Amino acid sequence: MRGDRMDALKVLKSIHVLSGVPVQVFDSTFERVEVFKSSSTHLPEYSLKALAEGISIRQGTFGIIAGKFNELFLMYGLDGSVALFGPFRCSPVDRPLLERKFADQGVPRGEWTTLYEYLRALPLYALGDVRDIVIHIHFCLTGDAIDPLQEELYAYVRRFRVELAEERMAAYAAHDFNPNVYLFYYESEILQYVKAGRTEDLKKMLYELSNAVIPPVSGDLLRSEKDYSIIVFEKLAKTAIDAGADIIEAYFARNSFVRKTEESNAFQDVLKIREAAIVYYTSEVGKSKSKGYSRLVSGIIQYIGLNANRALRAQEIADAFHLSTSAIQKKFKAETGTTIQQYIMQHKVSESKVMLKSGLTVTEVALALGFFDSSHFSRVFKRATGLTPRKYQDEQALEWCR
Question: Is the pLDDT score of 289 beyond 70?
Fold first, then answer.
């Protein structure tokens, strides 16, 4: 064990020498046992123990903590100890904001300039770059050239998909249909993209969105990173929609990512959710593109999804796309293997299953999806599934009880 610890310390010292970032090692009670720094590196004069108390970092995992003045420290779990890298910055130093913080904390005015220069001298990284730093540290200490965040990230995406389905059912159960539909309807920019058939290349868009961005400060660093994440979610949702993803699904996911970000209190959680959004939307766009639909057919599918709450006819869709009914019918069936009216009914049946599972009555589902009455809905549902809506609902309830 002693030899392993000595090897780890040599690696940590080499990381400090190459990066110029101070590296400290703390025991399980967060008492400092080693420090690697040079005359050109900067360490805070206050104690870090109070900042890190209560934080549990397992071996091979990481965390990020903020100092008293918005400087950051990366924590990496070792065997029975913690390595602390930093301080560094993830945002420009906003002097007026910083001076307000000094005043709030009762820092003597004579020390303000010294502290300001201390912060300005710190290395500047984007929060998204921290992942690459973690990969490098993990490789240096373990020899594994993997992303230690990857498994957790993809597990988070899987959990998100389950939670998203549950949220949709909850929304249906709360009779919250029209607000979502009208929200999508009034987002005119999105609708114009759909109707014009504009599709951006996802890879190019993700490159432009690169996580390696230093967001402007808006109150404090965590708030700035949250604000930037929300911008990313909006761009990802629009890009996914342009590429053929379902509008309602894309925006429902966006709202969920925003809410989860707002509930987060740690930098690594904000970064994880941002990364998860990119993985999620990339996956959704991949599903859409794998079908090979043209811009026109993708636009028709999106139009149907947007207007699933009312009666919809092929003539209306043709008018919306400024084409003849026969032209869009021929194009749609050639690519999907079904007529537009058949697809509309398939989509409504798919939506109705979620509503029925959530406990809505047959009449409520029929009205929410624009059927003439519950009898009309029941006939369509039974023709598609072989079960009446009530029978389907009863079977789902029994399955849930099991």
Answer: no
